[in-house]
Amino acid sequence: MTEQVDILEARPSAWQRLRDSHLWHSFVTDRVAQLSLLVFVAFALMALLAPLLAPFNPYDPAQIDILNSELPPSWEEGGDPAFWLGTDAQGRDLWSTILYGTRISLTIGLCAVALQAALGIVIGLLAGYFGGRIDSLLMRFADVQLSFSTMMVAIVVLAVFQATFGTELYQRLAMLMLILVIGIAEWPQYARTIRASVLAEKRKEYVDAARVIGLRPARIMFRHILPNTLSPILVISTVQVANAIISEASLSFLGLGMPVSQPSLGSLISSGFEYIFSGAWWITVIPGGVLIALVLVMNLLGDWLRDVLNPKLYKG
């Protein structure tokens, strides 16, 4: 009994294992990764705490005055200190609208990627584990899906839905529709990666041992094989969130995204584009800068994770 206690006490904690890992060592020595994570966390916190940080509620018509429309930032001539980033064409405080818009963009990006991952992981596990006709059928379906661009599929589906059911219903379901369309259009990225990992893992001894003791295929796939394929999933997810945010912004710019009453970053950029040549540059430029910064830090984090989790690049 004493020996078991000594062994348990000698076993390093999860925090100690993390600090001794190559992942942690790479992070503390990579200033770009640290800065990128810090900026992303700041964006996420600002979006999460938008109701507390925003001085105005851009969704409340009682707090919007059309007479305040197109006010420049407070540091320019004619600016109002109450609106330090200026106002948009509807008279909404741009800082408040950016906070709420970032929240919508991040929500759509994260939920769409969660849907992509769920579909792609299940399909990739089934294709890689069972092989044969199931593998051929699922992968041919993935090839067909990859032959169409995400934007093309999204534009067709959203335009048909809006024309069929009307603009009013579409505006109420805009966020759900964007999540579904972007999520369903991108699942092959996960499926092909997971399938390749499963093909390598299923030949290993621990999978044979699980089969010998009579475990069901579903348990083997999700409890034993899937945890060993998480590294590529993390890398893909980081990049795919950025891609989903860009897709949502592009669709909003084309008028197929979030309505004007619930603006995302893409909707803000779109709504201010027609005013940029009249001098109201801040309506488009400032949200555009926020979108670029958000996507950039996520891509930098994805590149760092890819390098760290690639065993061929690790010389430790």
UniProtKB/TrEMBL annotation:
Keyword Transmembrane belongs to the record: yes
Alphabetized SUPFAM superfamilies for the sequence: MetI-like
Keywords carried by this UniProt record: Cell membrane, Membrane, Transmembrane, Transmembrane helix, Transport
Subcellular location(s) of the protein: Cell membrane
Transmembrane regions listed in the UniProt entry: 35-54, 104-132, 144-163, 169-187, 225-246, 280-302
The keyword Cell membrane is assigned to this record: yes
Bilayer topology: Multi-pass membrane protein
Domain ABC transmembrane type-1, chain residue ranges per copy: 102-302
Annotated signal sequence range: none
Protein family: Belongs to the binding-protein-dependent transport system permease family.
Protein name per the record: ABC transporter permease
Native species: Marinobacterium zhoushanense
